[in-house]
Amino acid sequence: MLANLMRSSTHSSMTEVVICGLDELEAVMTKTQAECAITLLGPGMETPAVIAAVDHLRFSFDDTVDIRHPEAPTLEAIRRLVSEGSELLKRAAESKKPLVIHCHGGICRSTAAALILLSEWNDPLDAMRTVLRIRQEADPNMLMCQLADQVFGGSLLEEAVQWAQPEISRRFIERHELE
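Below the sequence we write its predicted structure tokens.
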């Protein structure tokens, strides 16, 4: 459940990123003593109380890849994630405590957010590998990645997720065969 350490070329210290779902959030926050968090939940969902006392960013959009969906991620939200999320990642590094990124299930929006933030300072394929190590269930929200590519001016994030699709599918099948 807890993340591997990742190095950022602009940070002198190691920054730990933890990705989780709502059902794990309280235990993760207690265990890690994190002081920085990013919440990505649908509109109308309350921010969990366990997050109230930490340096926190909140994003309200649904987990959809349809840009026409009324509650889809927006370019403005992803710009905010890149700018403010990067600052939050730096503050987590300075505190020597992890940055916790969570969504409802800890699979799509949170892994996309981690991929976007890690890709700002690292090669997108390396960032995708890191996300897959951090969160076995990772299946980054493609719309968020496409919007981030617009912010970064390329198509590397979308390509990184497409590169990882066979591994994501294999892990999904394995998880469901065990049920």
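Residues 1-14 have pLDDT under 50 and may be disordered.
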